[in-house]
Design a protein that fits this description.
Number of strands: 8
Number of helices: 6
Structural class: alpha/beta
Number of domains: 2
Shape: elongated
Distance between the termini: 35 Å
Strand content: 15-25%
Largest sheet: 6 strands, mixed
Order of helices and strands: HHEEEHEEHEEEHH
Oligomer: single chain
């Protein structure tokens, strides 16, 4: 699944996986490797590429994506037939593989998710601070400084309107 690999994409790994395949079933490894990094985007840009070193996606045009997803032909023998079948990984990805992703940014959703039949790629990068404490666990000095800001938000921004204040927080 797209967005799951932890190592950067390598064309040589894709090529080796493709050329090791001897049957149509063994092509699954090459396809899965490719689909861990690339997906079709509903947006006009075309292709999304997973970049695990930055934990984010790059948006690519089809032309840019074809620099990574190269035209590689593999001859596959099928039992009961004399002539091997040609499998073109690039053609398969661009013309046969039909899972489409829409782009979203939602802090409540995982990196990749499906909702009402639509697949999404979530561009929300995550929160800057991972180790968050309860307000009461901070020092009194920090609590006082934060309280000053909260009072400003309540009194100035929200004109002491509790509904607005709760919305802002």
């Amino acid at each position: 699944m797209i967005g799951t690999p932890t190592e950067p994409f390598q064309i040589s790994k894709l090529r080796n996986s493709l050329h090791r395949a001897a049957t149509l079933d063994e092509l699954k490894n090459a396809k899965d490797y490719l689909l861990g990094y690339f997906g079709h985007c509903i947006a006009s840009i075309g292709i999304v590429m997973w970049c695990p070193n930055k934990s984010t996606f790059r948006l690519l045009s089809d032309v840019e994506a074809k620099k990574f997803i190269r035209k590689e032909i593999k001859l596959i023998s099928i039992p009961g037939t004399k002539k091997p079948v040609q499998f073109d990984l690039q053609s398969w990805f661009f013309y046969e593989h039909d899972i489409l992703y829409d782009i979203n940014c939602d802090q409540t959703k995982p990196l990749v998710y499906e909702e009402r039949g639509q697949n999404y790629i979530n561009l929300f990068p995550g929160y800057l601070h991972k180790k968050v404490q309860k307000f009461s666990e901070y020092t009194q000095e920090i609590q006082d400084a934060v309280q000053e800001i909260l009072e400003h938000i309540q009194n100035v921004w929200c004109s002491n309107n509790q509904i607005q204040y709760k919305y802002v927080l």
